[in-house]
Write a structure and sequence with these properties.
- The chain is α/β, with parallel strands linked by helices.
- The protein contains 9 helices and 8 strands.
- Helix 5 links the parallel strand 2 and strand 3.
- The longest helix is centred in the N-terminal third of the chain and has 21 residues.
- It is globular.
- Bound molecules: S-adenosylmethionine.
- S-adenosylmethionine binds next to helix 1 and helix 3.
Length: 270
């Protein structure tokens, strides 16, 4: 392939995006994905709830960015658009909000393009987070994002697919460097901190999808925000990030196995 990405859909292997879609109750998955999802669910009954908690974190974070005036979003590792996707949340607050979705999975990209074909304010890019320059160039080329203005960069549940060997911290630094002051970065990321053995077992199963998950510490995940200002309450277990109501915070927020945080790029002094 000229673009270095497979355009074909490999049905002999489960795909992370389709397994995720299955857990969220979507219809864009195949038998091979459902089998793996069921196997993961048996080992980790908590996982479907974890994925929903991730989605809810993302929605709360997007609403926070909208309240801060952000009207354009770069959503990398966006997955298959299921109900309550980023552009829907954004449009509810700002009908002119623009969203560019990026995913490595050809199934996620194909479904996104189909669903958003008539939507002039969204774009879909088939690209790999490990090639951030290309994502930035293609985002600009859509004509939808103006990176000279504040943008919301969303990396929800995706950086853990980048192994240490591919230098995730450098990828994040490249994305931050391309953003204008006033921009925001949203990250949620699986962790080994405070986790029971079953969560660590699920990580081993993820090795059967195209990309294995790397669990990381809160300190490493916090590092992805660089010198940007981390908003309160910091990098926390996802349900603790500005829950809509105290009861949403969950009695055991660590059970979702992922930290979430949001940071703002404040204009450097001087
Ligand atoms: C767990 S889903 C998260 C979906 C969405 N961001 C959310 O929070 O609801 C992770 C997505 O990241 C995508 N992904 C994994 N590795 C990627 C990479 N290197 N570049 C771009 N997308 C990637 C997968 O295909 C999948 O759709």
């Amino acid at each position: 392939m000229a673009d270095g990405l497979s355009s074909g859909i490999d049905l002999s292997r489960p795909s992370a995006a389709r397994v995720y879609d299955y857990f969220l109750g979507g219809a864009h998955n195949f038998e091979i994905d459902r089998q793996l999802a069921e196997q993961i669910a048996r080992t980790t009954p908590n996982l479907a709830a974890t994925m929903r908690a991730g989605r809810q974190f993302l929605r709360r974070a997007v609403r926070t960015l909208l309240d801060a005036g952000i009207d354009q979003f770069l959503d990398i590792g966006s997955g298959i658009p299921t109900v309550g996707n980023v552009h829907e949340v954004a449009r509810a607050a700002n009908p002119k909000a623009r969203v560019v979705y990026v995913d490595i999975d050809p199934v996620a990209v194909a479904h996104s393009r189909e669903l958003l074909a008539d939507d002039d304010l969204t774009g879909v890019i088939h690209a790999d987070l490990r090639d951030p320059e290309r994502i930035l160039a293609e985002s600009r080329a859509t004509g939808l994002l103006d990176l000279g203005r504040p943008v919301g960069i969303l990396l929800a549940g995706v950086v853990h697919f980048v192994p240490d060997a591919d230098r995730p911290a450098e990828i994040l630094a490249t994305l931050r460097a391309a953003a204008a002051p006033g921009s925001f970065l949203v990250v949620s990321h699986s962790t080994f901190e405070d986790q029971p053995q079953e969560m660590l077992d699920a990580q081993r199963l993820s090795a059967r999808t195209d990309t294995e998950i790397t669990l990381r510490s809160r300190a490493e995940i916090t590092g992805y925000f660089g010198d940007w200002t981390i908003l309160e309450p910091g990098v926390v277990h996802m349900p603790l990030w500005r829950p809509d109501s105290p009861s949403d915070a969950d009695d055991h927020p660590e059970r979702f196995g992922a930290f979430g945080g949001v940071a703002r790029y404040d204009q450097p002094a001087g």
